Amino acid sequence: MQANQVQFPNQKYKTQLCRHFITNGNCALGARCQFAHGRQELRANANGFQPNSEFIMHQNPQVAPPLKVQPINPMIANYKTQLCKHFNPQTGQCKNGATCTFAHGEQELNQMNPYFQNQYMLMQQQIKQQNQAQIQAELTQQILIMILSNMEHIFPGQQDIINVLKQGQEKAKQGDNQGASEIIKLIIHDEQRTKEEKQQYQQIYNNAQRHYDSKLKEYLNQ
């Protein structure tokens, strides 16, 4: 071996980016890690191919020329597709350093691979649906507490019913919307309920429903 030749542990040493470093910005192995911590550490392997450099992904020779992409984490499918707001072109520095997922100059701008773009859009849609479901559950919880509280005024002096209504409020506060709803049905559908009591309940329900619709509309319009 020549005196100036660097010896590496194996042929693949530092030829791929460390996924822990990309995801978390650090790696528990530190200097002992076999993977590259940033593009500046990447080196070509024995065949002269550097797997993390820019390349053309050939998917279907029958279609138009494919986009030039970089291998990216599907969880950050917009990798290097937008200019970094924190990059200073004069100093060449960014506060996020090598872990930044935005482009440091137009020369780094990357076109999003169609597959990752679809996956990213699908992920965003799923997140929005999950958030909406959570908002609806929280609104339902608030509405049930509102209904159960106002129902106490329908039965003044009837402590047994009021105690059951308070139990329903506790269930709603604990996130048991189904249990709270069952208590409302149990009381209102009781054969002993008078026409006046049912009418008062219907008014309370209608007001609560309007409040629910208004709050949900506000969220959807954000």
TrEMBL record:
<dbReference type="GO" id="GO:0010468">
    <property type="term" value="P:regulation of gene expression"/>
</dbReference>
<dbReference type="GO" id="GO:0008270">
    <property type="term" value="F:zinc ion binding"/>
</dbReference>
<protein>
    <recommendedName>
        <fullName>C3H1-type domain-containing protein</fullName>
    </recommendedName>
</protein>
<feature type="domain" description="C3H1-type">
    <location>
        <begin position="12"/>
        <end position="40"/>
    </location>
</feature>
<dbReference type="InterPro" id="IPR045877">
    <property type="entry name" value="ZFP36-like"/>
</dbReference>
<dbReference type="InterPro" id="IPR036855">
    <property type="entry name" value="Znf_CCCH_sf"/>
</dbReference>
<keyword id="KW-0862">Zinc</keyword>
<dbReference type="GO" id="GO:0003729">
    <property type="term" value="F:mRNA binding"/>
</dbReference>
<dbReference type="GO" id="GO:0051252">
    <property type="term" value="P:regulation of RNA metabolic process"/>
</dbReference>
<dbReference type="Pfam" id="PF25427">
    <property type="entry name" value="zf-CCCH_UNK"/>
</dbReference>
<keyword id="KW-0863">Zinc-finger</keyword>
<feature type="zinc finger region" description="C3H1-type">
    <location>
        <begin position="12"/>
        <end position="40"/>
    </location>
</feature>
<dbReference type="Pfam" id="PF00642">
    <property type="entry name" value="zf-CCCH"/>
</dbReference>
<feature type="zinc finger region" description="C3H1-type">
    <location>
        <begin position="78"/>
        <end position="107"/>
    </location>
</feature>
<keyword id="KW-0479">Metal-binding</keyword>
<keyword id="KW-0677">Repeat</keyword>
<dbReference type="InterPro" id="IPR000571">
    <property type="entry name" value="Znf_CCCH"/>
</dbReference>
<feature type="domain" description="C3H1-type">
    <location>
        <begin position="78"/>
        <end position="107"/>
    </location>
</feature>
